[in-house]
Amino acid sequence: MPTSPSTSKPPRARILTGDTPTHTGLHLGHYVGSLENRLKLQDEYDCYFLIANVHAFTTLADRPADIRANTIGIVKDWLAVGLDPDRSTFVLQSEIPAIAELTFLFAMLIPFNKVMRNPTLKTEIETKGLGETYPFGFPMYAVGQCADILTFRPELVPVGQDQEAHIEMCRDVALKFNQMYSGVGNRVEPRDHVKAGGVFPIPRAKIGRVARLVGLDGTNKMSKSLGNAIFLYDDAKTVQKKLNKITTGRQSPTEPGEITNTLMQYVDVFIGGASVAGEARAAEIKRLYATGEGGGIGDGHIKAELGEAINALIEPMRVRRAKLDGPEGDAIVNDVIRRGIARANIVAEETLHLAKKAMGLDFGGRLVTQV
Ligand code: TRP
């Protein structure tokens, strides 16, 4: 642990989360499902945001150029939405040797059959059509994800619901490690593991405000491949055009509407979620919508109001992203990546040292250059 003068504030608790660079194209579902959460957490926590570029090879090993382009794209996305590389650390997985080392060591603590029964992996095998042909490294990534997380010894892991099985596995690994190698008793509560001498805090998942944002089609989850998404970099007109296409089956402003339909869900999320005043306005819209009182409120009116709210939210992102796509963009991204690697390796090497020591593997240190 770095020693700090006794007058300084206690170190902020750590958070780790990340994305796999298998695709590009952030949409509103990504924003309310995870990015918004990260933006807020930056104020309170010491945040580590990981780009799982090694994991991307588990399904795209033959497309390294795409992985590289998506890696750079993710950093641009993060900067565009407002993640701040001065306050938070951007971690490029492939440049953190401790993660690879811990993956191997943790692989001894997880029964093989348990990995193969992991529901998140199973779903992925189905939805990505991996059949029987996936590489050994594919299920291995679940162990790798435990290492991604535990390398930074975080308290919280903000993720979507689909990642909960991975976090559960990560908790199992941390518990077992602490019990096996740090002498933590079987009956010690997870939250007391560090106090009891464990190397790893037992991290908890933190699910975002909106676990599933419905798409413009009104039935499926918002997703790029289903063509039902509003992207963060859609221009103002496109956003409005897409909203205007939402159908509710309502004939007039006074016809009482279904307050759980797509339009009303968006009102809740993008008008209600914006501020206290927004919350009051969303409640008012829903009341008029449900009752048709005082002339009610028309779909067209609501769509225009939604368009304004969504455009106000994403306009700064469009502006920042456009700058990053300009001539200086790549230099900015390279600098952010390099600084992140240097900072991340300080924590990562410290964790690795503690873990190897606990395992009786402390035969001499390795120095990672600190730029
Ligand atoms: N598997 C995650 C996803 O596809 C990305 C990821 C990799 C991650 N390592 C992580 C998320 C560690 C949280 C913590 O979304």
What is the compact description of this entry?
This protein starts with 13 loop residues before the first strand and ends in a 13-residue tail after the last helix. Helix content is 51%, strand content 6%. The protein is mainly alpha-helical and 371 residues long.
Explain what this protein looks like in three dimensions:
With 371 residues, this protein is mostly helical. It is built from 13 helices and five strands. The structure holds tryptophan (TRP). Tryptophan binds at residues 16-20, 50, 52, 55, 145, 148-149, 157, 159, 163.
The portion of residues forming beta strands comes to 5-15%
* Class per helix and strand makeup: mainly alpha
Q: Strand order across the biggest sheet?
A: 1-2-3
- Percent range for helical residues? 40-55%
Measured distance between first and last alpha carbons: 19 Å
Radius of gyration: 23 Å
**pLDDT below 50 for ≥5 consecutive residues: which ranges?**
none
Query: What's the rounded overall pLDDT mean?
Result: 93
What is the overall silhouette? Answer: elongated
- Main pleated-sheet profile: 3 strands, parallel
User: Quick one: how many beta strands?
Assistant: 5
The number of distinct helices, counting runs of at least 4 residues, comes to 13
What's the order of the H and E elements? Answer: EHEHHEHHHHEHEHHHHH
Bound ligands, named by name, code or SMILES: tryptophan
